[in-house]
Amino acid sequence: MSTTETTRGLALPAEAAPHRQGPRPDWVAHAVLLLGVLLFFLPIWIVLMGSTHDAATIGRGEVPLLPGGHALENYRAALEQGGAGVPVGRMLFNSTVMALAIAVGKIAISIISAYAVVFFRFPFRQLAFWSIFITLMLPVEVRIFPTFKVVSDLGLVNTYAGLIIPIIASATATLLFRQFFLTIPDEFVEAAKMDGAGPVRFFLDVVLPLSRTNMAALFVILFVYGWNQYLWPLLVATSADVETIVIGMVKMIGSEANTDWNIVMATCVLALLPPVAVVVLMQRWFVKGLTETEK
Amino acid sequence: MERKVVFRGKALPLALLAPQLLITIVFFFWPAGQAVWFSFLRQDAFGIRSTFVGLENFTDLFADPLYLETIRNTVVFSTGVTVIALATALLLAVLADRQIRGSGAYRTLLIWPYAIAPAVAAVLWIFLFHPQIGLVGRALNGAGIPWDYKLNGNQAMLMVILASAWKQVSYNFIFFLAGLQSIPKSVLEAAAIDGARPAYRFWTITFPLLSPTTFFLLVVNLVYAFFDTFGVIDALTKGGPAKATETLIYRAYVDGRVNLDIGLSSAQSVVLMLVVIALTAIQFRFIERRVHY
């Protein structure tokens, strides 16, 4: 029953009925929300506009709020030459590889381990589950140098494998899949067994299709996670071949005196566009997935 | 919770678990164990021999006034980020939850900053608050308010707090909105019929019912402020000026990477590990309790 219906029949004091609060509170709500929206768009707008001006304009401190005429050459300069010797095109490629591999890898590794834990009985099952679970308490930041040493002993420094594999285990994704698998009715498993389907067949034909929504939601969260990695690539990817765009952009600002701010701004736009696009385009799954994953 | 009907076999499940467990052991447990072990060792000046020194790294650490200063910075920073990010998100979520026109559009417009990397958020804030090329920074200096976060420690702290909180608002917003929408409208209607004003309704009904969400976000925001904001600090201030924005995680990085003091850096890793374990334990204990209600 909606608010309006409930209160219409009763003679209420004007203040108490939500629908009769009049235009003023709504107006205030709109104003505050618009201010909030503006607060998030303004920095992006400044960077977007700045990326279409030449270096001198920005260096003089004239923060342009309208588009200029140097968009094409700035973005071309960024993509082909970049700032500190690495073309941003290359960085974009590296970030894409890293984000995709982390998202897909984490989902794949987690879904099969959750399947093993939920649909089988075997020795040390609980121990296996708890060892995965406990990694929640060991974020890469607290074991950074020993982990770096392992990666360097394995000869994986400055490789995609070194960037990706050490952070590809996922307690969060495993927990989410486990939670979901526990809700699959027993009848499904019995029916499959009756039809003579083994665990692999059941996984491919029943579990995988049922998990599509969860996989989509996790993909958004993990793509953003992978794209936005900072401390780990900062240590492990020191060569130009594997530099990611977030790291590359910050390095461009290194020596402030001769920073090409317009190129930094163009790079900044390119660095934030892919993950924002993924979140906006997959918003429906993302919101559902986020609020369910983390609780 | 357990399934009643399961498949038979031992080799297959172990094979399915193998990749995750292998990565967990090689890149999580082994390094974490090493960090704990190294925290009890001290290397000589040439890095050739190391001797067992017990808790000396820890006692040195907590006797170091600079480390205590780092703890203070971390407390100020985390509190600032958490309070600002939670309060802003709650305000926006409460307003977007009301049945006003376009609330769906506001939701879309407020969700996307989730995707922005902390380091990218920091760079965006440079263009707002840089004393020479930033929109607001220049205006402040032009108005006679001396503003330079690269020289003034308090301004630097304010900058990293605001940039970090800015990035976290949309995450909190998503959760607050989901929490608000799960509150039964009949409860609020009943209060409205009793003549409770909107503000009174919020503090006596909505806010208490929202407390599980708020508590969950409190822990998540603290973890974010402790660990994920490394990029913000590295891009904006590199811990400066004069270590004014050096947090625990940044100091651990500097000691390990720049000063190459593995013992001291490992001791800091262990301290940080204890912090995460404590925060995670609090969170799960709380969730456990909520399930029993």
UniProtKB/TrEMBL annotation, chain B:
<comment type="subunit">
    <text>The complex is composed of two ATP-binding proteins (UgpC), two transmembrane proteins (UgpA and UgpE) and a solute-binding protein (UgpB).</text>
</comment>
<comment type="similarity">
    <text>Belongs to the binding-protein-dependent transport system permease family.</text>
</comment>
<feature type="domain" description="ABC transmembrane type-1">
    <location>
        <begin position="71"/>
        <end position="283"/>
    </location>
</feature>
<keyword id="KW-0997">Cell inner membrane</keyword>
<dbReference type="InterPro" id="IPR035906">
    <property type="entry name" value="MetI-like_sf"/>
</dbReference>
<dbReference type="Pfam" id="PF00528">
    <property type="entry name" value="BPD_transp_1"/>
</dbReference>
<keyword id="KW-0472">Membrane</keyword>
<feature type="transmembrane region" description="Helical">
    <location>
        <begin position="156"/>
        <end position="180"/>
    </location>
</feature>
<protein>
    <recommendedName>
        <fullName>sn-glycerol-3-phosphate transport system permease protein UgpA</fullName>
    </recommendedName>
</protein>
<keyword id="KW-1133">Transmembrane helix</keyword>
<feature type="transmembrane region" description="Helical">
    <location>
        <begin position="12"/>
        <end position="32"/>
    </location>
</feature>
<comment type="function">
    <text>Part of the ABC transporter complex UgpBAEC involved in sn-glycerol-3-phosphate (G3P) import. Probably responsible for the translocation of the substrate across the membrane.</text>
</comment>
<keyword id="KW-1003">Cell membrane</keyword>
<keyword id="KW-0813">Transport</keyword>
<feature type="transmembrane region" description="Helical">
    <location>
        <begin position="108"/>
        <end position="128"/>
    </location>
</feature>
<feature type="transmembrane region" description="Helical">
    <location>
        <begin position="200"/>
        <end position="227"/>
    </location>
</feature>
<keyword id="KW-0812">Transmembrane</keyword>
<feature type="transmembrane region" description="Helical">
    <location>
        <begin position="267"/>
        <end position="287"/>
    </location>
</feature>
<dbReference type="InterPro" id="IPR050809">
    <property type="entry name" value="UgpAE/MalFG_permease"/>
</dbReference>
<feature type="transmembrane region" description="Helical">
    <location>
        <begin position="75"/>
        <end position="96"/>
    </location>
</feature>
<dbReference type="InterPro" id="IPR000515">
    <property type="entry name" value="MetI-like"/>
</dbReference>
